[in-house]
Design a protein that fits this description.
The protein is built from three helices and no strands. The protein starts with a helix and ends in an 8-residue tail after the last helix. By secondary structure, it is mainly alpha-helical.
Length: about 80
């Protein structure tokens, strides 16, 4: 995948994920109290965490593969 193609197809999604995570953290900090019951928001945060942990594991694996690639001008 070229850098241009990456910037057009992947980067915007990563930026939305970053912005969404920052927004979730801000709103969680802004809550004055926590209810005595499990909320749908808590359930969604837990599900999102699982998804992001899986995505992070995939990225780590991809980084390892990338690091083992031969250098472009290596003979």
């Amino acid at each position: 995948m070229t850098l241009f193609h990456w910037d057009m197809t992947v980067k915007p999604h990563l930026q939305f994920i970053e912005a969404g995570a920052a927004m979730a953290a801000r709103h969680a900090r802004a809550l004055p109290i926590k209810p005595e019951f499990q909320t749908m928001a808590q359930d969604q945060l837990a599900e999102t965490r699982k998804i992001l942990e899986s995505a992070l594991a995939s990225i780590i694996a991809a980084e390892i593969i990338y690091e083992t690639k031969a250098l472009e001008n290596a003979a």
